[in-house]
Amino acid sequence: RAMAELPPSHSSASRAAALAAAYISHRHGSPGHGLALRDVRRARREDIDGIGHKYHLEFVLEDIFERDSTVNCTAEVLYHLGNKNSAPDVQFTIEGELKNTDEADNVFYNRIKSLKKELEAENIPDSYGNVPPEMQPIRALAWAASGYVIWQNSAEDTKYQLAQIKRVKQVKRTDEYLEFDYVILLHENVSQEIIPWQMTVLWHPQHGVAVTQNGRLPEHALD
């Protein structure tokens, strides 16, 4: 097993760190906050014969709403050789405490539960980059859910990020969960492709974010 030190700015290091950040965001994100990669501190790549490349990473995450709220992380990301259908293995450790968002999450939950008709919105952020304050939790929820989609569809040579929510519609439910149907745009930084993607998202303050179905949409789906 050969271990090579990579410059933190190396493109493969930043792709692996962005994937780890997306995975952590899915596991720990909520309407109250989103986690994004701020910078990579250290990166090493291990070549495991017959298995794939494993990246050993140290990086900093920031809150998408409060950029001065940061946390240090370490992660290992294993990309499997040749198997395009297998999501990378990600293991991570967060050093220190994440911001407590229980209060913000509960405020959002109760607000949506009390709506007389199901929430619908589009183009978040708008073409000027603006997100209305009442849509910030909807965006943070999409950010966490897209972390799952990014993790499941990433390879060593890709780097996805949520660019925009094209449409979101709340789905009526009879249980305690909130359900939203999203159409999002994912930006793939390597090819510069903008990819429309559908995802159905369940959320409850006690149970976190779950993506129950998702799939790439044809380009003309946005017309």
Summarize the structure.
By secondary structure, the protein is an alpha+beta fold. The chain contains three helices and ten strands, in the order βαββββαβαββββ.
Residue-averaged pLDDT, rounded?
95
CATH architecture of the largest domain: Roll
- Helix tally equals 3
Please give the CATH class of the largest domain: Alpha Beta
The coarse silhouette is globular
- Could you list the spans in which at least 5 consecutive residues all have pLDDT below 50? none
Domains (count)? 2
Instruction: Please state the structural category.
Output: alpha+beta
CATH topology of the largest domain: Nuclear Transport Factor 2, Chain: A
Spatial order of the strands forming the largest sheet: 1-2-3-4-5
Keywords: Acetylation, Cytoplasm, Heparin-binding, Inflammatory response, Protease inhibitor, Repeat
Pfam families: LXN
Function: Hardly reversible, non-competitive, and potent inhibitor of CPA1, CPA2 and CPA4. May play a role in inflammation.
Main location: cytoplasm
